[in-house]
Amino acid sequence: MLAFPNITVSILFSVARVDVTIFLFFAVVGWIGNSLIILVTVNETLVSFYTCFFVNFVFISGVDVSTVLMFFIALDRFVAAKNPHFYSTFNKRNYVVAIVALSLLYAAVFKALLYTSLTEDPTLCLIAESMTGTMTNLWFGVSTVVNLSVIGLYCALTRMIKVSFSEYQRINRSINMIILVYVFGWLATMGGCFFALRVGLK
């Protein structure tokens, strides 16, 4: 109240009601969404790998593009910190166009490769279950390597900044948070799926 002396108690309660309404809305959306996932899982609505591939086409493409973009962002930060003079000579427009083109090319190549290994066998259409065959192993393996490279680049960047600029502890904390989120995000997903496929878990 002291920070905002002009705000009355009734205004605070009005703001609290709006907050509660928003939180309840998100909770209901979460309950409905998760209930639908449970319902589909319980009913085991199975479709062919071809159908599932096309259903998840945009989402898997997004996974591929974002994975490669995260690698290039990490590489960009590493090069900028390691050799700022060389980095400043880049033509920004061509640089960005090349990164986006390589990311889209990566996604297109893996879409074509994954399509060649699809079958008419039924599957529960989740992103991790929407592919089959040897190309799935390759896709998960390459994605895991790219994700490990991102973490390696950020770890190298953290060590470099600690050695060079001790006053940048806040930047180091930010980078460490990125590494932590990345480890428990796509790396855990891709690495876990790759491991499960290699050991034959169902």
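Next protein, fold it too.
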Amino acid sequence: SHILPINGESPKKEESCQENNNVLGVCEACTKPWDVLRGKRRCPTCGVPSLICRDCAEADRTGKRKLSRDVRCDLCVKEGIQSKTEIKEKEQRELLAYQSKHANVSLSPNAGTDVMMDGSKQEWQQDRPVVAVKNPEGITRLFIKNLHSDTDEARLVELLDQKVTHIQWLTDRQTGQFYGTAFCEMASKDDAAHAVANLHKQTV
């Protein structure tokens, strides 16, 4: 599977990241506000491109302060993931748990995209106004299924129309092919609630 960080509005200059209080992320090494991807370093556990500020990247390049394997992406740190094996095991557990819990949900090939937020399927209501769904548990991670096979990062972000921090595309373990499901980590619980509403035009 692939996990990709999504920036909000990319600043015109790197320096603006340090001055902008509304930046999406922080440097994974020193935690100062930063949202510009630079260099080729990736999270040693999940492989997502690392958010490393200019100063820390330069210190690593010159050997003054090397970036260790403990410097991981915010999602891996948050979830306590320390190895690629743990990621694969976690993905498999989540997928099996979802399939087991919702085995009675059947979708036709032409059905609308489904999204899971609080363990229940949000019903598709095409002609209703977009209003944020209820999210009392503060869920920020969405499980989205039945996506078209050629859905890409840009299209999914457009559909959600809210701030996304990570996209995790789920692929078949045998073939490696994408089969229309993904996890999306939203920037906040409100972003998650509005994203569900945008996908399904769900009313409160």
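About the second fold: The two ends are 33 Å apart (CA to CA).
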